[in-house]
Please model this.
Amino acid sequence: MTTGTRKRARRGEGAALHTEILDAARQLLAETGSDEAVSVRAVAERVGVSTPSIYLHFADKDALIDAVCESVFADLGQAMEAAAEGVADPFDALKERGLAYVRFALANPEHYRIVLMSRGNAANSAAHMLTTSTYQNLVESVRQCQQAGVFSRDSDPTELGTSLWAAAHGIAALLISNPALVDPDHQMLVVEQVISAAGLGLALLQRIPQQAGDPCPADLVAGLDAALGPPQAYVGPVGS
Amino acid sequence: MTTGTRKRARRGEGAALHTEILDAARQLLAETGSDEAVSVRAVAERVGVSTPSIYLHFADKDALIDAVCESVFADLGQAMEAAAEGVADPFDALKERGLAYVRFALANPEHYRIVLMSRGNAANSAAHMLTTSTYQNLVESVRQCQQAGVFSRDSDPTELGTSLWAAAHGIAALLISNPALVDPDHQMLVVEQVISAAGLGLALLQRIPQQAGDPCPADLVAGLDAALGPPQAYVGPVGS
DNA sequence: TGTACATCAGTGAACGCGCGTTCACTGATGTAC
DNA sequence: TGTACATCAGTGAACGCGCGTTCACTGATGTAC
Model:
């Protein structure tokens, strides 16, 4: 059932098919959302080429899936950078990155799922991830917040970055697995709440005295009330 | 290759095999961590029974996997309740629930993975999840924090619960996918930081004036500094 | 108490399926002379 | 300019595999008389 509509590549133009295969795999992934469902056969058919042709361009199925993950992860990083571009305040920039992260995840749920919610692809491995510019940019963003006095300069920026990442990943993953968990109208509000709370919470946590035993939580809350007033239901920032 | 070591159940004792199958599936899942890897054949062999016997107790493979998820999710809920038991302060109790959640996830990574990180099992569906006591207990815990003045009484407790859940799920999922992301010695410290920051962050967020436009983040941080002093690197609560 | 029979937990063998991968091949493209 | 040849992108058919599931069966257990 090969379609045969494709023209054969000229000498040295094999790279074109390489890209087409990658794109087709991404497409298929977006439609099905599972690497199990993206079969070598299906990719070949989508491209309009015979199944064994895939092996001319990728060593095996894993290599293909890994390449897809790599490219999705790079796009995620780009979305984050674009969102932070031109934002002067580093704490704001950090938040924008976080929001862009979740926006990307919700806009590309099936891609996000395979890159960050499934097991055993090379892209999703600590050793590799820590070297990506996507992650390095996040850490750099945290570092700028440390310089600006939001977080302590004595903290490990990668550790803070991981904590913030966890918040973004958590709400993204939860909403992807379970879109009905929150009312669609409130969805971005909840996302924003989670992202903001993670950043503010870490900043606050670093300002609570740790030496003299746990300040009891009731006192802590009383302190917040004294300084800032009683809590109000969150209705989101005016600007969004 | 059926082992045949089992004795046949007496009349009306079919339920025993039902339980044995469930346990074997959980065992297998813990070893492999993927519902794809848990095959009906493998489960049958583990129990010491022929493959078709499984169908005497479960309609099909999905029903079996769903039953496993159900039971894991119930255990998770129990772990959370046990951790919160006897903790007087509701904000503390909420935190203990969160810590227990992540501890359970890290102790049972493969079980956690299939219940909360994979797609398409009945247990992991919003409609069902919202009715579980595991989730209801979390919401109740949030509600008690509202009564105690930690969070506004005007907030939606399920929405706050979801936000807190996101933080716990995020760090759990990240560390399960990627254990090397943080130094093992710091692992629980990071977890605690994320959980605490989520709770504190939401409490703080509700105390920031929202009417008169965004308070600019620099002012916000300056306010924290004025009230509480400059940030210090987090070294964790004394008590843990 | 003994025997014929119904019940039902569990079995062995087979089904069709889609998968990743391999292999010997074809035939258009470019090159050497 | 023409021809023989090397190259290499792409193919068709087949491989073995493990899977979920079905089906006609077996034989121990309990029951009716």
Summary: The radius of gyration of chain A is 22 Å.
